[in-house]
């Protein structure tokens, strides 16, 4: 349901285009690792991978499960709440590993938070947390996904984010997603985390270049 909603709503908010590496594939049991720049980019990611026929499980902040309009869909579709800073935080990776074992595609945001900026400009992915590397430790392929332009839909202070969403259907800013070839992380957690960040950064740079070329 949420993927279908994203596929419908995102084109209203912006002009989404999607490219892939020649060897990109979202095979069952894959982990999708996007950069995180805006509250709306999860919708952008869902809309993009839906174009490739995939409806993934998403690890997302547990606060979303407290929103009545979202909770039912999140539970029905098997999305995974992340209770950051609590004893329940590790449970999210356990649930994600179970979803991978069942053949689901799992989306995890390796940065773990939004950038602390108020302007609408894009920037390279920030430091990664170790959750992605730990989830991929059993060999699940990691598909780097770079998105550029979501901050043009909504970014900044709460007031600016709301204003951005309200005016986005009139502005319809360009947004681009690039999906890279799968990578297998190896080495210790720190090494694997560096590998993942390099791959996602490369995908983001490609997305940003495509976005620049459209202007």
Instruction: Tell me the total number of β-strands.
Output: 7
Which parts are unreliable, with pLDDT below 50 for 5 consecutive residues or more? none
Report the oligomer: single chain
Distance between the termini: 33 Å
Give the C-alpha Rg.
16 Å
Shape by Cα distribution: globular
Strand content: 15-25%
Described by strand count, sense and barrel closure, the largest sheet is:
7 strands, mixed
Secondary structure: helix percent: 40-55%
CATH topology: Glycerol-3-phosphate (1)-acyltransferase
Query: If classified by CATH, what would the architecture be?
Result: 3-Layer(aba) Sandwich
CATH superfamily: Glycerol-3-phosphate (1)-acyltransferase
Structural class: alpha/beta
The domain tally reads 1
Question: Would you give an account of this structure?
Answer:
This protein has a seven-stranded mixed sheet with strand order 1-7-6-2-5-3-4, sandwiched between helices. It has a single domain, classed as Glycerol-3-phosphate (1)-acyltransferase (3-Layer(aba) Sandwich), CATH 3.40.1130.10. It is of the alpha/beta class and 215 residues long. It has helices spanning 2-13, 41-50, 68-76, 89-101, 131-135, 150-153, 158-171, 189-213, and strands at 15-20, 31-34, 57-61, 80-82, 106-107, 142-148, 174-179. Helix 1 packs across helix 2.
Keywords:
215 residues, 15% strand, alpha/beta, Glycerol-3-phosphate (1)-acyltransferase, 7 strands, 8 helices, 43% helix, seven-stranded mixed sheet
């Amino acid at each position: 349901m949420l993927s279908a909603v994203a596929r419908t709503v995102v084109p209203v908010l912006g002009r989404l285009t999607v490219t892939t590496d020649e060897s990109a594939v979202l095979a069952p049991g894959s982990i999708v690792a996007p950069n995180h720049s805006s509250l709306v980019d999860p919708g952008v990611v869902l809309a993009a991978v839906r174009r490739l026929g995939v409806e993934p499980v998403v690890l997302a902040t547990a606060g979303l499960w407290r929103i009545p309009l979202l909770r039912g869909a999140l539970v029905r579709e098997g999305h995974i709440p992340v209770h950051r800073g609590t004893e329940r935080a590790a449970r999210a990776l356990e649930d994600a590993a179970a979803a991978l074992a069942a053949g689901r595609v799992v989306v995890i945001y390796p940065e773990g938070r939004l950038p602390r900026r108020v302007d609408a400009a894009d920037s390279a992915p920030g430091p990664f947390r170790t959750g992605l590397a730990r989830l991929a430790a059993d060999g699940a392929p990691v598909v780097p996904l770079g998105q550029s332009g979501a901050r043009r839909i909504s970014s900044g202070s709460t007031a600016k984010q709301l204003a951005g969403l309200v005016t986005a259907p009139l502005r319809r800013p360009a947004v681009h997603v690039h999906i890279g070839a799968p990578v297998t992380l190896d080495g210790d957690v720190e090494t694997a985390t560096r590998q993942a960040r390099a791959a996602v950064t490369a995908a983001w740079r490609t997305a940003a270049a495509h976005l620049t070329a459209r202007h």
